[in-house]
UniProtKB/TrEMBL annotation:
Official protein name in the record: Fe-S protein
Keywords: Membrane, Transmembrane, Transmembrane helix
Biological source species: Microbacterium tenebrionis
Membrane spanning residue stretches: 6-25, 37-57, 69-87, 99-118
Length: 119
């Protein structure tokens, strides 16, 4: 069971990498647009994160940190909202507001930081 949990952690990290990598490619490539890869990365990271929030495969005596899980979920929902706002503006022919675009990257990085640093 522990091996399966580690595989889900790997999938979660891949989702983060897809989201952040797609954002970084746009940020440093000059276009600064919301792409479908960002949406896919968000979906992968979110689904794997929810699977990790279930209390399965933990060693005896290990307890879940529900405050951390809740915080990460709220940040994930905000990222999703920002991606939706940016994609909606793109479909109407407008540009993505710089604040929305840069917040996506900042919050994605913050979510990874929360995962790593909050014990």
């Amino acid at each position: 069971m522990e091996t399966l949990r580690h595989v889900v952690v790997l999938v979660h990290l891949v989702g983060f990498a897809v989201l952040f990598g797609a954002w970084a490619a746009q940020a440093f490539g000059g276009k600064r647009q919301i792409t479908r890869m960002m949406d896919w990365g968000l979906a992968i990271a979110g689904a794997a994160g929810l699977a990790l929030a279930a209390p399965w495969g933990l060693a005896d005596g290990v307890e879940m940190n529900y405050a951390k899980i809740g915080t990460k979920l709220v940040v994930l929902l905000i990222i999703g909202a920002l991606l939706g706002i940016g994609a909606g503006r793109q479909k109407r022919g407008a540009t993505v507001p710089p604040a929305v675009f840069w917040l996506v990257g900042l919050l994605t990085l913050a979510n990874a930081g929360i995962a790593l640093l909050w014990r």
